[in-house]
Amino acid sequence: MQFESVLEFVKLPYWKPQSRKEKQSTSLGDGCQSPHTSKATLVNLRDGESRPRENGPYRHIFRLLWESGVHKIFTIEIDDDGEEPHTNAAIRDALRGTSDNDTDERDFDIEVWKWMKFDICSETIFKAAPRVKELHLYSSANTAVLRGWASESGLPKLQDLERLAVDVFPTNENDEQDCTDYKGEFIEILHMYNNNLVIDVKIHNCTYQGYQDKSRIGASSNQVSKGLQDTRQSKPKSAEWIENLSNFRSFVDRLHNQHKKGSVKIALLDDGSKLEHLHGTQTGKSFRDDGRDYFVGDCEHGTQMADCIRKICPMAELYIARLDDSGVSENQTFSKLSCLQALRWALKNKVDIVSMSWSFARKGPENDEYEKEFCNLIKGTENVIFFASLRDDGPEYQNQDFAPVGLDNVIRIASATTFGIASQENTHNAIDFLLPGENLQNQAKTIVSGSSYATAHAAGLAGIVLCCIKLYQHLDVKCPDVDLLQLAKSRQGMSNIFCHLGQREPEGKDESGIFLMPSRTFNMDFENHRGGDEVTILEDLVSSMIPQKERRGLSRR
Question: Where is this region: Disordered (predicted)?
Answer without folding.
Answer: 20-39
